[in-house]
Specification:
single chain; 330 residues; alpha/beta; Rossmann fold; Helicase, Ruva Protein, domain 3; Zinc Finger, Delta Prime, domain 3; 3 domains; five-stranded parallel β-sheet; 59% helix
């Protein structure tokens, strides 16, 4: 007979990054142990019953347990879940995914509460507590990677990056990789400065965001402000920042055209899934593969214009960016 296990586990919470990371970790652990994986999406009771029926059918022959990830747990027939949870042991384990913090006065809320330790909830921090929680998170993320960071530096880091845990995790992983490269285990200001993404620079980020939306009016205003508030010519710097962003938009468009899901795309590229889905993909929504590829070419032309000693490289770049917004833009 197959190995028996607790019938139902659940992961919920309004803190999306921690919820999804916990869920992914559970799935990965079971995959490594040789479990069969199934997923019920947009929950259909019939689909769920079919998955659960494996306990009395296929497992009698191949002796392989199954983990069934159940999306939209609040839409599932609670009676089905209660009957499965009441089993003493089973070869089919349900892993329920519930977005948001479950309310105890709802059926799913009461069910999850009754699961006790088999349910983990990841609530979002209160607004007034967000900075403190983010600093503690950064310190723990570095510790998990074998690094230490002074509390004051962690506070400065959070003040610059923000309190979104997924983005913080992504930046921490980059700085940790840089510290490995230079042989340091304690994070210092130089490592933080060297590892931070150029897009975090306040003067450039509005340009990136306006370009992502193809908002020509906003883009022109941000470009003019950048020109007026900086001393040196910013053409090369801006081209390289935009090239980094646009190359990601091109990748999103290519995966979209191929019908590849966001998680699979992130895995193929070896990037943080949360960062890819929540930071890169939304920015790329206005860009087709052809548009992004064309803009990449224009950025290359802008840099070559600087190298060749063009009369006004900045004007060339501005014109190129605004013309790119004209295709399907505002």
């Amino acid at each position: 007979m197959a190995k028996k296990a607790v019938p139902v586990f659940a992961v919920s919470g309004s803190e999306d990054f921690l919820r999804e990371r916990d869920l992914a970790g559970i799935v990965d652990d079971h995959r490594k142990k040789g479990w069969r994986l199934d997923r019920v999406v947009g929950v259909s009771s019939g689909e769920l019953r079919a998955a659960m029926s494996q306990d009395s059918l296929s497992f009698m022959t191949d002796d392989v347990p199954t983990l069934v990830v159940v999306e939209q747990a609040d839409k599932v027939d609670i009676g089905l879940l209660e009957r499965h949870a009441g089993r003493s042991a089973t070869s089919v384990v349900l892993l329920l995914r519930h977005e948001g913090d479950p309310k105890e006065n709802t059926k799913i809320g009461k069910f999850l509460k009754d699961l006790g330790k088999q349910h983990r909830n990841w609530p979002k921090s209160k607004e007034w507590d967000a900075d403190k929680v983010a600093v503690e998170f950064v310190i723990k993320e570095f510790q998990a990677l074998g690094k230490t960071i002074p509390v004051r530096l962690a506070e400065i880091f959070v003040a610059r990056v923000g309190t979104e845990l997924g983005f913080l995790s992504f930046e921490v992983s980059k700085i940790s990789a840089l510290s490995d490269a230079v042989g340091k285990s304690e994070v210092d200001p130089d490592l933080v400065k060297g590892g931070m993404a150029p897009l975090a620079e306040a003067t450039v980020q509005p340009v990136v965001e306006a370009l992502a939306r193809k908002d020509a009016k906003a883009l022109a205003g941000h470009l003019d402000k950048l020109k007026r508030t900086t001393k040196d010519d910013q053409t090369i710097r801006l081209v390289r920042v935009l090239f980094d962003s646009v190359s990601k938009w091109l990748a999103v468009a290519e995966f979209r055209d191929r019908g590849v899901g966001h998680d699979a795309a992130a895995a193929e590229l070896g990037v943080n899934p949360w960062f890819w889905k929540n930071k890169v993909v939304p920015q790329a929504g206005a860009w087709t593969r052809a548009d992004a590829a064309s803009l990449m070419g224009k950025l290359g032309d802008a840099e070559r214009n600087v190298r060749a000693g063009g009369v006004n490289p900045w004007a060339f770049l501005v014109s190129s960016l605004l013309s790119a917004c004209a295709v399907g833009g505002r």
